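Regression check, iron/sulfur cluster case 737:
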Amino acid sequence: MATLPVPPQEIRARFGPHLSRSTGMRLDTGLSPDKVVKTHCCFCGQQCGIQLLVKENQVIGFEPWMEFPFNEGKLCPKGIKRYLQDAHPDRLLHAYERDPSAPGGFKPIAYEAAIRRVASEIERLQSQHGHQAFACLSGASLTIEKAYLMGKFARVCLQTPYIDYNGRLCMVSAAAANKKAFGIDRAANPWSDILRAEVVWISGANVAECAPITTDYVWQAREHGAKLIVVDPRITPLGRTCDLFLPLKPGRDVALFNGILHLMIEHDWLDHAFIRDYTVGFDQVAASVKPWTPQRTAQVTGIAERLIRQAAELWGTARTSFLMHARGIEHHSHGVHNCLGAINMVLASGRIGREGCGYATITGQGNGQGGREHGQKCDQLPGARDLDNPEHREHVARVWGIDPDDLPPPGVDVYEIFRKIDAGEVKGLLSICFNPLVSLPDSHFVSRMLDKLEFYVAIDFFLNESAQHADIILPGSLHEEDEGIVTSAEGRVIKINKAVDCPGEAREDWRIIQDIAQALKRPHGFTFASPAEILEELRHASRGGVADYYGITYDKVEREYGVFWPCPAEEHPGTPRLFEPGSWNPVAQGRGPFYFPDGKARFNVAEYTPPAEEPDAEYPVILTTGRVISHFLSGTQTRRIGPLVDHCPEPFVEVHPQLAAKFDLADGDWATVESRRGTCTLKAHVVKTIRPDTVFIPYHWAGEQSANRLTIAAQDPISKIPEYKVCAVRLKKADRQ
Ligand code: SF4
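Current build output:
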């Protein structure tokens, strides 16, 4: 049974979200901390350096960490307030068992009893229905050691193919496109290359709110004379100051990229030598963009032809450039093709693998990069190896001390796992650091599936909305309660340092996973005594792979303020910039800088396909979703931090004045937004900074405020990312709630 034990308001009254504020020791400015811990902010993929001030096992404040090169002490509002998640009144201090008679629907139980119950339920379900009847959902905010352990736990201990992670909802379209074009999934350049770019092109990335410190790099580039092009359905804060803003109709990114490439070819703004020496497939792509005349591109994208021509000329004639994108082009049922279209523009320009010539996706989740490299993806083994590759299976099985034939086959993506719950194939679930009820599309379906589970165990530090459906809750660890490495958006591996001990009965997540393995009497491979021991094994498991971490140690990472992977040996300096001419990699073996046997990058035909659900007479408006600066992902942490909630207490719907007039909506009115899947009533923000055919809702909230009640579960056929950025809705004015 995984239904809510008591009404949601009773759960909220007991487990929150309640708001933390600076009180007690945190207000005493004269207090000397017991220690100052250099670590990183957990609230986005930038992973800014920060120093936490600790007194009596409590984080009481922070200091900037000026020496850390990425952010040099700068922090955004989330980073400044992140210390308020520690010693929080909602912190889970015990294991809990579902009990409708207990306050809030859950009663505390002894940790050991909870572990025994989890093991016996796994044993029961797997002996009755097979190993695949139990699935795991993991998280991209976990350290690399934990992410690695989760992949190993699913395959070796549970022997289930069904594990996937919440990065599936974040960067996987970019990851798949990068693998197709470059053979490797990592930002091609360190952010320092942004400073030397003549043109910075940003597509589908609300940089100032979602990757705030990157804004500083863009501003510095502009101070050096760079031109900034921003493509977005909303005039984002960065868009308000750019040189050229292209107001793209949601879901048409690939049409724009193809149109730009068409003009590059027409005007011969191409690097012929680079295309000849370092790529394959250009002719086919050139033929495919022939129909994308400026007129057709303008008609499909909704961008004036004049602006398209200006953008093409700026991009086409630049000597150096940096193209960045984020979820705005990736969260689509054709997200991979969107990214391939962007990459084609970069390859045709020849501006990659050199100083000031770059390309990157801006990773969103805390360990969004490292979390997608070492085996918690449904089809992946450590070192970015492939689960369906016999040599890769052989290598990892050897490190794990098992027969390769005992490794399960590739599994399915997270949404497909929920469909398997629906089909009765998956009956039990373990989730860690994942709140699918808020973060997956069509959340009514997700809620029904959680209810349908025979057994659900959630590991987390706060009781998130999904965990409210659990039978057992195990109290895991906060970012500052454990150590390990993560990899930032740049590809820089950095060290998270422990600042405080886990409170109460809470445990480090890797201990909990191992305790379950021990209780299942399947301890082989789960006897690590520390994250350092896990990293030691991971180094060998990743060795020789594309994501080679063999040369990475805690000492080296701390000494050098991070190490860019690949780093195949301890004496190797790491690889800040990929694809430099003459560089060596284990796939090309010296034949070229890209990660294919011939060393050449691949042009890929990027096909335009309309979104899965277009507006029509019944649902005439496009809904697009995204983030705000004050909140992080499903809001489990930031909806509990008082000053961040003060700044943005509730979701809203952004509406252009022309659209608002059609529905008689004024700024501040309540509006009901309705899709074929659900409804949401929110305050209208009437703004001129959004296209008149589109509304925007941030997605960090749960229940009746959840944008994902409206979104569609259409997925990209390659990456399986859901189409969060386009669905059809209608609006109506609502009575005040
Ligand atoms: S930019 Fe990201 S990592 Fe840096 S302080 Fe803000 S939320 Fe934290």
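Comparison notes: Residues 277 and 595 are 15 Å apart (CA to CA). The radius of gyration is 25 Å. No diff flagged against the previous build.
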